[in-house]
Structure formats: structure tokens, C-alpha cells
Write a structure and sequence with these properties.
mainly alpha, Serine Threonine Protein Phosphatase 5, Tetratricopeptide repeat, 9 helices
């Protein structure tokens, strides 16, 4: 079953709900290694996104995602706004004009989002960022898609891989972003950006289950 425009709107609403529910948790994760505002910023950004959704509800998936991206860029503070904003803008460009996404489309969409994040943040895997959750997630989905795994299972595999990648940031030394200023003291903390990335992918898997 493809992901439809309605599924995409449901996913974005679910992301807003999940980020609101995890606002304090994400902020706690950000407290020792960041500015203690990741949860607050993401919650505010997606509240603004939800307010905008009715204006794009009848448009194609690409237009919806681009609207999410531009809204995040203009409302989310810190590094997450430009990074997630760029991710959704690139995802929107990859799905421009489409009202249904099949497995290969979803992989291409997420690859475009990740490339946008890497270009914007100059981050690579192993540097304790959201890239560490997204990279294994997309690799798992790509492998699943090549083996003709159905959408729901493909997304679940991606979500599970993102969770593993998120947990794997705990022992890493941060070399990018605010956490990199702490040097060795960044070791032992789970990256908040990797955590919010996992929450978004889990919400997508849950929406399409």
C-alpha cells in the first residue's frame, strides 16, 4: 500500500503529538550537552506546522513537505530549525507533484532529507548527531525495499535501526554542534537530535502500520 497525501498529513500530526509528549525528555537530553531547548524548540516548530497544515491539505505530498520545511526554518531556534527545515524541504523536492509514495519513493525522499542535513550541518556518521540515527535507518529501509518488503515492515525496520543508531550515540565523542564544545564530557550522553529523528521515523512507522 502506498503512502497517500492523507497518510502524510496524519504522520505530521502524529509527529507534532509525539514531540509535544516528549518535549521535556528531549530538553533533559539537551541539558548536559546543548542549550537545554531542543524539546521546547521542536514542540514550538511543529505547533506552527500544524497551524499551517489546513492551507496545504489538498496539495501534493511535495508541497506539504516543503511547507513543513519552510515553517520549521522560520520558527525553530538553534541548529534544529535549519537542519530539520532543510530535511523537509529536500524531502518535498524529492516528492514534488506526487500524491502517492511507494517504497522506492519513500527511500528516495528520506535519502534526500539526509543529504540535506549533511550538507547543511557538515556532519557525517559517528559525530554524535541526528545523522547517526538517520543513516542506519535509511540503509535498513533501502535493503528492505530491494528485497520487496512491504511498506509497513520496511518503515518498522527503519524505525528500529534509527533507535539502535540513537542509542549508539551515547558512547560517542561529539565533534559537531554545541555538544562538541564539551569535548570528553559529551561522552555518555544520548544525542537529542538523534532522539527526535528516531521519534519522527517511529511516528511514520506507527502511522502506516
Amino acid at each position: 500500500m502506498p503512502i497517500t497525501t492523507e497518510d502524510m498529513l496524519r504522520w505530521i500530526n502524529q509527529v507534532a503529538t509525539v514531540l509535544h509528549e516528549n518535549r521535556d525528555y528531549l530538553t533533559q537530553l539537551d541539558s548536559p550537552i546543548g542549550d537545554a531547548d531542543h524539546g521546547i524548540n521542536m514542540d514550538r516548530g511543529f505547533k506552527a506546522v500544524i497551524a499551517k497544515l489546513p492551507t496545504v491539505a489538498t496539495m501534493d505530498i511535495g508541497s506539504i513537505l516543503k511547507t513543513v520545511g519552510s515553517t520549521l526554518v522560520s520558527t525553530v531556534g538553534g541548529a534544529s530549525g535549519p537542519l530539520y527545515g532543510t530535511a523537509f524541504l529536500r524531502a518535498g523536492m524529492a516528492t514534488s507533484g506526487k500524491n502517492e509514495l511507494y517504497e522506492a519513493d519513500v527511500v528516495s525522499m528520506l535519502e534526500a532529507a539526509l543529504e540535506g542535513i549533511k550538507a547543511r550541518g557538515k556532519a557525517q556518521p559517528g559525530e554524535k548527531t541526528m545523522v547517526d540515527a538517520l543513516t542506519p535507518a535509511i540503509a535498513a529501509m533501502k535493503e528492505a525495499e530491494q528485497h520487496n518488503v512491504r511498506m509497513a515492515q520496511m518503515l518498522r525496520r527503519g524505525s528500529d535501526a534509527a533507535e539502535e543508531g540513537m542509542k549508539a550515540t551515547i558512547p560517542l565523542l561529539a565533534t559537531k554542534g554545541r555538544a562538541s564544545y564539551l569535548g570528553e564530557r559529551s561522552i555518555g550522553h544520548q544525542d537529542p537530535g538523534a532522539t527526535s529523528s528516531w521519534l519522527m521515523l517511529k511516528a511514520l512507522a506507527d502511522t502506516c502500520a
